[in-house]
């Protein structure tokens, strides 16, 4: 599903690698936490997986496709198989909840009849069926993140990348988001979560990859399997 082989990434002329000779294999259907202090390379890793950045060295294979070889014009099509949720939600402020989720489908030219069926289904799944006409500034932080998650999942992505998805949320909303991520994983989506929330990581007992200074320093299954 996701394979990194001897991947390094350096920025600018400094020559200091943000990622150092990383080897990583995430299987289809896994739920993986990536943790580590600020500056450990977690955000760079997410950008590499999204092909927002290319590695300085090494290869990244996602769904049997070496993404280093993807031509620029084909990157949008590649990204359609990946859902992304960010800490700052990144909703369209001038569109209501329904329109924010529908936008993800319109981008890939999904027929309107399918959009009209799938968007309400996603809103029900994240518990916001009655808020479909609301705009982002009328929602709480937890509600905005649920909209962002619904938007990320509406196209049924094979992979979901969540970069600090609970960073701006209180504990109650954080747990609700993690429950939704786990439900997506149980439906078959491979989930990769970058987080500083140790309480959630310890409680959920998933695979945990710990990074430090651009390297993986531990990789273990907390669930004991």
TrEMBL record:
Q: Which UniProt keywords apply?
A: ATP-binding, Cell cycle, Cell division, Cell membrane, Membrane, Nucleotide-binding
Which ranges of the sequence are coiled-coil?
none
Which coarse location class applies to the principal site listed for this UniProt protein?
membrane
Please give a single GO biological process term from the UniProt record.
Answer: cell division
- Fetch the PROSITE patterns from UniProt: ABC_TRANSPORTER_1, ABC_TRANSPORTER_2
Pfam families attached to this UniProt entry: ABC_tran
Q: GO CC terms for this protein?
A: plasma membrane
Q: SMART domains in the record, alphabetically?
A: AAA (SM00382)
Q: List, alphabetically, the Gene3D superfamilies matched.
A: P-loop containing nucleotide triphosphate hydrolases (3.40.50.300)
Keyword Coiled coil among record annotations = no
What is a single molecular function from GO for this protein?
ATP hydrolysis activity
Please report the record's description of how this protein sits within the membrane.
Peripheral membrane protein
**Domain ABC transporter positions:** 2-225
Q: Where in the cell is it found?
A: Cell membrane
Membership in a protein family: Belongs to the ABC transporter superfamily.
Subunit info here reads:
Homodimer. Forms a membrane-associated complex with FtsX.
Instruction: Quote the function comment for this protein.
Output: Part of the ABC transporter FtsEX involved in cellular division.
Instruction: Give the protein name, as stated in the record.
Output: Cell division ATP-binding protein FtsE
Its taxonomic placement starts with:
Bacteria, Bacillati, Bacillota, Clostridia, Lachnospirales
Q: Identify the gene encoding this protein.
A: ftsE
